[in-house]
Design brief:
Layout (H helix, E strand, L loop, with lengths): L1 E11 L4 H15 L3 E8 L10 E4 L14 H11 L3 E5 L6 H9 L2 E5 L11 H9 L3 H12 L2 E4 L14 E3 L26 E6 L8 H13 L5 E6 L5 H8 L5 E5 L6 H6 L3 E3 L8 H5 L6 H8 L4 E4 L2 H6 L6 E4 L4 H10 L3 H18 L2 H16 L5 H4 L2
Parallel strand pairs: 1-2, 1-4, 2-3, 4-5, 5-6, 6-7, 8-9, 8-11, 9-10, 11-12, 12-13
Helix pairs in contact: 1-14, 2-3, 6-7, 6-12, 10-13
Length: about 400
């Protein structure tokens, strides 16, 4: 089938999760035999592959809030292509591609990675209340009603009126071919044979919780554990605060941002992957952990046991004591104990092997795209319960 994929507020290529997601889905669908055309903002380098037909299109002035102003341009491209399927990556101020799908009678697929419905403390809900007639809610709900298929990590962030038969609940994934325990390449850190390397990879935002990892390391040093070394990869608004918290602590390395194509080697050179999410720092996550955390799947694919807070969603991905260790959220002492447990090479080797197996079987981009392909084909064939077809 011919697929038009609109992700115009995403820069491609780039190291952030949205860019990785769009690229992986586009290439995965193309590998399954579809003709895939993607509209995205061109990043600092050329688009990544000839297998996908990439076309540069960004929101006016680079502002995501103006994205819908590209509706006319998207419609003209859709009219020229005559796609069987139009996929749009959801955003509050989007809808440019879903409306084109309705006009062309193409299958309309809405990818939803952030809450469509209002949650306690929602800024958009307060704005809607100020505007009285709630135009933002009405628009979001119109997009959901117009979609033949909604793809999301959490059905709870979709309006209740959407039939479950039209919602494919599925996780993001990892490229399990590129991310594996033997991945080689130059890495921006060194190690001693006796070290246990704990890696954090992220955009250093408050809810990523890197500050909690530093507090856990401080407690380990106070207990005389100097063999557990931490490497923090990435950049972002919280980086300076985290660096300041780490001042005076030994065995902590900040690498700065690393290109995504170097990440397989970085993770393969580590022993433990940490995702210390702080839900109290993000209102929508505190209400529902709607993310499908890319870093966790890449840790697992690399054969690393994962240390993460004991959150219901994460407990379905990482089974405590099987693929990793879950600790009590917001408790640096509990996090420190989890890291100390995995200083035992035998324990972490067994958990890492299980994590790799689970990633290959359930959480690869290939598996994600196979399920998406099955649901799209069912929707195109007019099947009523498209979600059930994506086994």
């Amino acid at each position: 089938m011919k697929i038009l994929y609109s992700a115009i507020d995403q820069s491609i290529p780039a190291a952030h999760g949205g860019a990785v997601h769009v690229t992986a889905v586009a290439e995965g669908l193309a590998a399954l035999g579809h003709e895939v055309h993607v509209l995205a903002t061109l990043g600092a380098q050329a688009f990544p592959t000839a297998r996908v037909n990439w076309q540069s299109m960004g929101p006016p002035l680079g502002l995501r809030q103006l994205r819908f102003m590209r509706a006319g341009a998207v419609r003209r491209i859709a009219l020229a292509l005559q796609p069987d399927v139009i996929v749009e990556r959801y955003y509050n101020f989007g809808g440019e591609a879903i409306l084109s799908a309705r006009r062309l009678h193409a299958v309309a697929v809405l990818e939803v990675n952030a809450p469509v419905i209002d949650y306690p403390g929602s800024t958009k809900h307060r704005l809607d209340q100020f505007l009285l007639v709630e135009p933002m809610r009405r628009w979001r709900e119109r997009l959901c009603r117009s979609a033949d298929l909604i793809v999301t990590p959490s059905a709870r962030i979709i309006p209740a009126f959407v039939p479950a038969s039209r919602v494919l609940t599925t996780e993001w994934g990892a490229d399990t071919t590129r991310f594996h325990p033997g991945a080689g390449g130059q890495v921006p850190f060194s190690r001693e044979p006796s070290d246990t390397i704990v890696v954090f990879a992220g955009a250093f935002r408050a809810w990523h919780g890197a500050i909690h990892l530093i507090e856990a390391m401080r407690r380990l040093r106070e207990r005389g554990r100097h063999d557990i070394i931490t490497v923090l990869i990435g950049a972002g608004p919280e980086l300076s605060r985290v660096r300041a918290a780490a001042a005076g602590l030994s065995g902590i390395t900040f690498t700065g941002a690393v290109p995504h194509d170097q990440m397989p080697a970085c993770l393969a050179a580590a022993d433990v992957g940490v995702a210390p999410f702080d839900l109290t720092a993000h209102r929508s996550l505190a209400w529902e952990f709607h993310w499908s955390p890319l870093k966790i799947f890449e840790y697992m694919a690399s054969g690393l046991p994962v240390v993460a807070p004991r959150i219901e969603r994460l407990a379905h991905i990482i089974r405590d004591g099987i693929e990793g260790v879950l600790y009590e959220q917001g408790d640096p002492g509990s996090l420190a104990a989890a890291l100390e447990r995995l200083a035992n090479a035998g324990d972490r080797r067994a958990l890492g092997t299980a994590a790799r197996l689970r990633a290959v079987q359930l959480f690869s981009w290939q598996r994600h795209c196979e399920r998406l392909d099955q649901a799209i084909r069912a929707a195109h064939a007019g099947v009523q319960n498209v979600a059930e077809c994506a086994s």
